[in-house]
Write a structure and sequence with these properties.
The structure holds 2 protein chains of 2 kinds.
Chain A lengths: L3 E4 L2 E4 L5 E7 L7 E6 L6 E5 L3 E2 L7 E6 L2 E6 L9 E6 L6 E2 L3 E5 L1
Parallel strand pairs in A: 2-11
Antiparallel strand pairs in A: 1-3, 3-8, 4-5, 4-9, 5-6, 7-8, 9-10, 9-11
Chain B lengths: L2 E5 L10 E8 L8 E6 L5 E7 L6 E3 L7 E6 L4 E6 L8 E8 L7 E4 L3 E3 L4
Antiparallel strand pairs in B: 1-2, 2-7, 3-4, 3-8, 4-5, 6-7, 8-9, 8-10
Classes of the chains: A mainly beta, B mainly beta.
């Protein structure tokens, strides 16, 4: 199985900060990487697919990138509605696997 | 508008069975592969199972293989998850998810989830 290692597991940031979350795949997955946002008590929401493509309706403050088997989600200017938990997921092969999540909290 | 509405969750005893349903609307159900993803209380997301658009191919996590069965009914636009021999570690919110196409396992929409507590 492909392991997805996400870091950090949590972070504290202020409104307006630039935030970066990293996800590392245990083997090559090309660009088959998605990012999801989950707020407490809610279902996940799809943000990014193919490592860097924004889902329809997702604001451009979210961006994704890839370097080999390392993937990054960046929020350019953190807003109150962005405080949530973020998950990466590979869809290169079954079983589909998720990272452990990164909880973004208010400093 | 795509809508996925899960139902069928509820308290079940260890060793028991339950069938979850996911009613789909807002898209041509028969054209898309579908999946179930679960989340144990306070934990992360865990993929459970997937089914191709035709229903001819199914996939399972090792943790549920042999106990859970995914299926779909095109006439009812509904996805199912039959769960047998349930264990305490199956306790979770179960989400139905739609893949963006028939050819890729990329999730674009999620349901609101249904809670399955397994306890005596």
């Amino acid at each position: 199985d492909i392991q997805m290692t996400q870091s950090p597991s949590s972070l504290s940031a202020s409104v307006g900060d630039r935030v970066t979350i990293t996800c590392r795949a245990s083997q090559g997955i090309n660009n088959y990487l998605a990012w999801f946002q989950q707020k407490p008590g809610k279902a996940p929401k799809s943000l990014i697919y193919a490592a860097s493509s924004l889902q329809s309706g997702v604001p451009s403050k979210f961006s994704g990138s890839r370097s080999g088997t390392d993937f990054t989600l960046t929020i350019s200017s953190l807003q109150p509605e962005d405080f949530a938990t973020y998950y990466c997921q590979q869809y290169y092969t079954y079983p589909l696997t998720f990272g452990g999540g990164t909880k973004v909290e208010i400093k | 508008e795509v809508q996925l509405v899960e139902s069928g969750g509820g308290l079940v005893q260890p060793g028991g069975s339950l069938r979850l349903s996911c009613a789909a609307s807002g898209f041509t159900f028969s054209n898309y592969a579908m999946s179930w993803v679960r989340q144990a209380p306070g934990k992360g997301l865990e993929w459970v199972s997937a089914i191709s658009a035709s229903g001819g191919s199914t996939y399972y996590a090792d943790s549920v293989k042999g106990r859970f069965t995914i299926s779909r009914d095109e006439s009812k636009n509904t996805l199912y998850l039959q769960m047998n021999s349930l264990r305490a570690e199956d306790t979770a919110i179960y989400y139905c998810a739609k893949f963006i196409s028939s050819g890729t396992a990329m999730i674009d929409y999620w349901g609101q989830g249904t809670l399955v507590p397994v306890s005596s």
